[in-house]
């Protein structure tokens, strides 16, 4: 994608639901799986945002320490709806990407990577109600996902 297409794809993340994020099994690219709406009742499809050639990712919880302190109970891992607004229901299995993604920025670090590898690099910050992510990447691919997509499968033991 060119820079304008990356910007449009990042704009499209606004208020979608992040359901999974992590490095791919080959550990070069970083993927995010999003549902088309932060409202699970909307039933919109899933898309994979693959941040290609991603040498740096920083993930920080955006849940406040006061809420964390009230959200340590293991039962919250299984709760899809919080009993109150004072806790975080980890069992929701999704987080709203609000306000979503910032602009793809250039920085001293992106310029350094670009000059060393000969391709453009970008830096972006994504905010959700569960995590804040900072990514350094060179390209972005967005694809629709079919039911059953699994980012990692434990292989059979080899004999």
Model description:
It comes from Kineosporia mesophila. InterPro entries: YxiG-like. This is YxiG-like domain-containing protein. Pfam families: YxiG_2 (PF24712). With 159 residues, this protein is α+β, with helices and mostly antiparallel strands. It has one domain (3-63, 94-144). Helix content is 16%, strand content 31%. It is built from three helices and nine strands, in the order H-E-E-E-E-H-E-E-H-E-E-E. It has helices at residues 3-11, 65-70, 108-117, and strands at 17-23, 30-35, 46-52, 56-61, 95-96, 100-101, 122-127, 131-137, 139-144. Strands 5-1-2-3-9 form a five-stranded antiparallel sheet, with no helix packed on it. The chain has a four-stranded antiparallel sheet with strand order 4-8-7-6, with no helix packed on it. It is globular and about 50 Å long. The mean pLDDT is 91.
- Amount of beta strand: 25-35%
Share of residues in helices: 10-25%
Averaged pLDDT:
91
Q: Order of helices and strands, N to C?
A: HEEEEHEEHEEE
Form type:
globular
- Widest sheet: strand ordering: 5-1-2-3-9
Oligomer: single chain
The tally of helices reads 3
The computed structural class is alpha+beta
Cα distance, first to last residue? Answer: 43 Å
Q: How many strand segments?
A: 9
Number of domains: 1
Largest sheet: 5 strands, antiparallel
Low-pLDDT runs of 5+ residues are none
Give Rg in angstroms.
17 Å
InterPro entries: YxiG-like (IPR058188)
Protein name: YxiG-like domain-containing protein
Write the layout of secondary structure elements.
Layout: H1 3-11, E1 17-23, E2 30-35, E3 46-52, E4 56-61, H2 65-70, E5 95-96, E6 100-101, H3 108-117, E7 122-127, E8 131-137, E9 139-144
Antiparallel strand pairs: 1-2, 1-5, 2-3, 3-9, 4-8, 6-7, 7-8
């Amino acid at each position: 994608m060119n820079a304008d297409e990356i910007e449009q794809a990042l704009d499209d993340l606004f208020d979608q639901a992040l359901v999974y994020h992590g490095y791919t099994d080959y550990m070069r690219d970083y993927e995010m799986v999003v549902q088309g709406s932060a409202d699970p009742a909307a039933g919109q499809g899933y898309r994979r945002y693959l941040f290609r050639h991603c040498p740096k990712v920083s993930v920080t919880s955006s849940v406040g320490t006061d809420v964390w302190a009230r959200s340590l109970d293991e039962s919250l891992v299984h709760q899809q709806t919080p009993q109150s607004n004072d806790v975080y229901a980890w069992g929701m299995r999704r987080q709203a990407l609000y306000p979503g993604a910032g602009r793809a920025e250039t920085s001293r670090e992106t310029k350094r990577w670009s000059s060393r590898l000969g391709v453009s690099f970008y830096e972006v910050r994504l905010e959700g109600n569960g995590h804040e992510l900072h990514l350094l990447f060179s390209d972005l691919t967005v694809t629709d996902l079919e039911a059953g997509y699994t980012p990692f499968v434990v292989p059979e033991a080899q004999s």
